[in-house]
């Protein structure tokens, strides 16, 4: 039986899920319709993001997602630079600094303004771009000819003001009114009056002032003597004025913003300098990771958090912000504190099937663009996630472990209680005793774990899982949250609730191991759906190692199975076994390798004592990172065996950077050092520290546990890792467990 529905002005074809046994026709079937953004340059700061090709341009035609983004809208969909009407040849491009990109180009043969032939490779043009609250591009032209040249620099702009959901191919354009381009006194304005009555403007300033302006194209003329250098500057501002707001550009103090950016990156470098190692390439990877996490920071209501990923997920995501804050805890606790407070602010309070809000539930995604303003998408915020709520509780207890800030539990006590009520109530669909999900919204996401593509959860015969669906890793998160909260509840005089949480966690562990274990496959199932076990071999239950829910009698055979060649590629662990029907090495969640997934698994391997296996996973991810441009691990990459190709294979539309991928290497380093903080008891335990063969020495200086500081020296001697406490300030007990 088919029906048709109109929701928020968007046409959706809906198929009866129970009849067909598969998700409804899903606008999210592909997370983006773009084909390839693997050679992009990305710079961003706070809420402004610039994504260009490696030549610094935003293509006017055939744009796959490049552009200048602000508040979920593309304020530039084209910016192309030519000299004398010809395209230039890039010879260097770099976005190593997350707030700055550099492109260096040279010329083909052409005629200058006076008709003189200019030989190829005699003009050098560089584009240095920074993003201190606006885009500031400095175009430097150098003449290496023996005579004077006169050049026209032609800059072509365009702005479609499409919402990110339109760019991704999920929705049609809202239908706002594009206004004619205006130019006056060196200032070009491109604008759109949105259906939501927001006036969105792109304001472009030129120095020197263009000689000719035609529509969205400007021409600047420069004359250069032999070996002379001339400079032109372009400044681009994005402005979003809602109804009732004054039609004036908000001032940007560029110097102050640059100082703020530089201070944040200096702090990231100093953090990296606190953990020098014997491996210089690894040092560069860690520096890249911490710098990218700095670049991905956004702020809202005074709270700082990590944007999920550029360009598709450059927004607040509950799950992603929580996991990246978890990964960063040993290095910087402030993002965890802010992320907790911001997610608590948006915690669900009522019931709404359109946004899937329920009391106590932590959000999935918040969008602030035209589609959200018009209620054409549910992301305002949208709550279709099953795991953000228990992960919120886990972040809280891990934050307290590092800081000793029990006051945060008291401050968020009502939020914690609401989250637990959601897990035990709305999350326990059908009273099955497992935290599950079942999409309700017409534009909701069918699969609501971290593998949220429509085909990511399946059965062994290849058919897709039917709602309600209980994911393996989510049961682990719930177990860990309740088990870790129990002792904290005792500290705030809630002993009865502590006993209840302990009892519920133990009961969940027993039921999980009984229901999810597949004795015939020596592995835990991916999920349980409406019809029973989804018995595929996947990475989902491997995350359960981190949570402690796995019964020790199963763990040895489970880990052995995890490292068979259908799951482990030598680069990392696949999301899905190559023996499964839905396996595809370039399937978004069905065979690719996700760095954050591997980092969580690595932490779990350490917790269960599998330090050699941890070393193997860490080594694979390190060797992949060293081969990616600028040592930046992307959102995911191809799940091909290392023996097939000598390089990790790029996933064509992976977000890069992606916050929790940037956090993967620091998180794995924490795992191999075995850091287990307990600030409430002034204790730091080093549990089975184990450096991999390529890392002979690690110094971890200025580790803060509560109000104390310590510095540790880790050295690999043969196959053993020895630890020396080189500094200690405060009453901290450092325990080493081998």
From TrEMBL:
Residues 469-618 form the Mannosylglycerate hydrolase MGH1-like glycoside hydrolase domain. Pfam families: GDE_N_bis (PF14742), MGH1-like_GH (PF22422). InterPro entries: 6-hairpin_glycosidase_sf, 6hp_glycosidase-like_sf, GDE_N_bis, MGH1-like_GH. Signal peptide: none annotated. Residues 43-234 form the Putative glycogen debranching enzyme N-terminal domain. GO terms for biological process: carbohydrate metabolic process. This is Predicted amylo-alpha-1,6-glucosidase. It comes from Methanocella arvoryzae (strain DSM 22066 / NBRC 105507 / MRE50).
